[in-house]
């Protein structure tokens, strides 16, 4: 969905008096966090450096927003300059980057073999508890692959943070260019599915259905695109690794026919997976970077809000969403999953799990306000709405039962390309100034 621009001055909000230069020896990393409410400019003055696998260039200043947690690594040494208010900026030589680079080299070897034999490319699952750097390692491995001319696919199952779209979704993105150091991967053409909750726990059955669906879609893409097939995929999972969360990891490994499972920082998970996955799956334990920042519940919630805001207002809030009314008769809204019933109340032959993927019509009412709605790509109800990808999202800002309309914010103008909405548990309160 496209939107209208309103570019602001790049250096607004940066405290230009706060300047600090850092000289990094080879294999060192500069880590910093941007202070709340501040913005920070990073310049590469000399040498070479990369940010989560993307090479920095000298001709550009990189501006990071409030709360960003950044690591700039150098293989050969460099000089960097930070301008603006940073929290805890320090240089460290304690990084697992060489281990990650070796992992990349081994994966690349698998790609070469798959090319020679025309077999499926490597399918890598990255898992581990919360805040061990799973998304960062995924981004690093994707960037390194792209820098070698590969077209790897990022499969993002982290419904809590939303790597390829907003939180509450899962999706796939075939990457052709390294991530922008500030804005991340180019998200113009991701394939996104509605989940609706910020934890798989919200609807386990649906989560598993969507994982299987993504695996099928990725396999289909591999069938007609050899470059995608040989480049393989990196599957980023969420940090829920116990009980049903663990079962979801097994289900994911099986659905994607994972060859390699990278377990970050959890010996217990590593041993469990080694025991439960077939022998041909290479389960590898790797350390987390000491730089990875642990996030509180509030920080996660703020990050989710920021991600959603970014969807409607663009990176650095350079766009404005469109606001318009939709009449009740124009669209149909559904929720996925009926309330759980005791077994004795279920119709004969129906399993409890079936209710979790049932479409339940939602009558538009005042309680829709602030909810995010996913616009399904389905053209008719004959299609399976649960397993159909979505075109985009709107947030409901008002409901007027008298006029029989509800107002939305949308990154794209009218008309809506489709008529079926799926409602999320997630809400977004628009307080953009
Ligand atoms: N080496 C590093 N130095 C400084 N910050 C880092 C480093 N690696 C990652 N981070 C930051 O730490 C935070 C958490 O990392 P990341 O999102 O990769 O963890 P995760 O395990 O995927 O988290 P989640 O459990 O939410 O899925 C991110 O803000 C990231 O930018």
From TrEMBL:
Function statement: Required for endonucleolytic cleavage during polyadenylation-dependent pre-mRNA 3'-end formation.
Span of domain Clp1 P-loop: 128-314
HAMAP family reported in the protein's UniProt record: Clp1 (MF_03035)
Phylogenetic placement of the source organism: Eukaryota, Metazoa, Chordata, Tunicata, Ascidiacea
Annotated compartments: Nucleus
Similarity comment: family membership: Belongs to the Clp1 family. Clp1 subfamily.
Binding residues annotated for ATP, in chain numbering: 29, 69, 131-136
UniProt organism field: Phallusia mammillata
Residues annotated as domain Clp1 C-terminal: 320-430
Keyword presence, NADP: no
An example molecular function term from Gene Ontology annotations: polynucleotide 5'-hydroxyl-kinase activity
Domain Clp1 N-terminal: 23-112
UniProt keyword terms in alphabetical order: ATP-binding, Kinase, mRNA processing, Nucleotide-binding, Nucleus, Transferase, tRNA processing
InterPro entries: Clp1 (IPR028606), Clp1/Grc3 (IPR045116), Clp1_C (IPR010655), Clp1_C_sf (IPR038238), Clp1_N (IPR032324), Clp1_N_sf (IPR038239), CLP1_P (IPR032319), P-loop_NTPase (IPR027417)
Keyword Transferase in record: yes
Protein name: Protein CLP1 homolog
UniProt xrefs under Gene3D superfamilies: Clp1, DNA binding domain, P-loop containing nucleotide triphosphate hydrolases, Pre-mRNA cleavage complex subunit Clp1, C-terminal domain
GO CC terms, sorted: mRNA cleavage factor complex
